[in-house]
Predict the structure.
Amino acid sequence: MDYGGGEDSSKFVALTQINKSNVNQLEVAWSYSTKDENSYFFNPIVVDDLMYVLARNNSLVALDASTGKEVWVHENLRGIAQRGINYWESKDRRDRRLIFQMNHFLEEIDARTGKSILSFGKNGLVSLKEGLDRDPQSFPRIQSGTPGRVFENLIILGSATGEGYFSPPGDIRAFDVVTGKMVWIFHTIPHPGEFGYDTWPKDAWKYAGGTNTWGELTLDERHGIVFAPTGSSTYDYYGADRLGSDLFANCLLALDARTGKRLWHFQMVHHDLWDYDATSAPQLVTIRQDGKTIEAVAQATKQGFLYVFDRLTGKPVWPIEERPVPKSDMPGEQAWPTQPFPTAPPPFARQKMTPDDVNPYLPAEERAKWKDRVASARTGLFTPPSMQESVALPGARGGSNWGTTAANADKGTVYLLTQDWPSFYKLGTQIPGGGRRGRGPIPVQDGRIAYEQNCQSCHGADRAGTGAAPSLTDVAARMSAQDFRQVVVTGRGEMPAFPSLDGPSLNDIFAFLGSQNTGRNNTATRSLGGPVVASGGAPGGLEITVAQYGGMAGPPYPEGLEVPSERYYTDYGLNYPYVIAPPWSSIVAYDLNKGTIKWRQPLGDDEETIAGGGKGTGLPRGGERHGMVITSTGLIFVNARDQKMRAFDEETGALLWTADLPAPTEGMPAMYEANGRQFLIVPAAATPAQDGREKKIVVAPGSRAYVAFALPQKAAAR
């Protein structure tokens, strides 16, 4: 069982022990405590009855998949990519490796012993900052939280580049699993002479960034194709320095998995100005239409469309129309005049917010203010950000995101989790969060300003925490400066990443927080005992380097380029997921044989709204950072933000089973068989989600765990 259920990312398992008639008998078979108060959204993988999880202060732990008992622990892997790892084995199975990213290096551990493989790369490390045709020291970040895909003897990786001006390029690369040598690279910002170079300004490859696959790759192993959905070019919301359609941003790329050669592509957003990254896993399905069979690939997007193509040719299964969209009124900006709209299947998310869409369950005075605010804003799908406030629906974290797609390939059915979450944008010349090129004279004073602009709304003016956001009063005593920077830049639990904050700003915030208490900064990680076999990964892999630049601002442009005289910025506008009327999140089933929505169900119930008379609400932020398992017996298992696990009927969407979890859940569940028993494993180790309302959710200390469900022993034996 690999990351995301397998190389095809379908989350489908051909196991038959658990079915519709007995799913309501599922019980907790075992639970493994993470033994810390960290938040994890790690997708467990299982090989040969060994399960690999992230726990114990960011340690990789091998567990007996039948009992949850520790087999070995590789401690102290600070900076490891949080969503998952990969597994590779040689044909004779004598060489078995766990492959992961940590602190912008690629590393490997022996899957049987838990010890670092030092013959890989240079003393066990392959730098992910090298080989991108720019100064590696200029990159504040590059590694993705998602582990990529293994194909034959290759590990194929995307990257997480950040979203500011001068972010690194999001080139897709493949490395030899045994040696660490880079085998191929695909330039997502084309170089001179490459296809798509003319869709950018001259020499944009020297300074433009993004266009990266930070979400999920999908492999068609039979045809040797890797499908890579890409994100926006940067800066995300103002593109006067990247005029053009910006290939290969916002594309579904089909690449030869052995060589990296482009087979075909389709761009789903031209000249993106809305952070509409394509991040969810492309789904491979077999469609039957008019007596013909089509091997198809379906790509869900943040903007609420599902695009469907013949996966060998790239031809759309249904026509996709280029339709006119609003112009930009920003100086120097040239929004693309049209965008691609699928004629089928229908959208899975709402795509415009009007005053009538404001949440009817808000207090009357608050609702009236929101109706006025929305009425005065620019609205509508693909309406460019402006110095007048605009409302984008779905917003930057709406629609479909990583982990949220699945499929029953033989039936031609695609399932996805979606959420209607608007973003409120307003461009200006001031950088949100104080990301800057210059340095202020007093770090603590600058840190206070940066804290107030970025952190105070959640963690409070007194740093004591509000709602689900934890207290930061003793953060400098609880973690090192490098751990603090890592958490803020990459995100943790329900806290989003803050790529707009550069290294100096993060250091200033940490200095400010440290000045507010008398605690001592403890940089050591205490060992928790048990079967520890190693610590820290490969030598040198612990050092986290924060570059000078990397916020929204970026360095000056290279000399000789025609570039805009001013840079504009906005924050992500994501503080109000509850403002739109429910349902906020749903699970949706598509029948792609017909190009229709088969059924949809709200995902969870918001207790506050239900108490006020609401029904079928779904959960604010309920469709984000979660996943599914699809079974051959017609079940869909889904984890959600309300600390529950659910099973739905694949055919009808009827809810068949619900179970409480000991802590909030994020990431993707998984299903496997060990010693003749079928298990469902759920990562219940997250931080409570904050939905913008004043509601305190407390996670009991020691409750975070990986929880395994199974049928009772006697029932499983039948």
Notes: Confidence is low (pLDDT under 50) at residues 434-443, 517-524, 544-550.
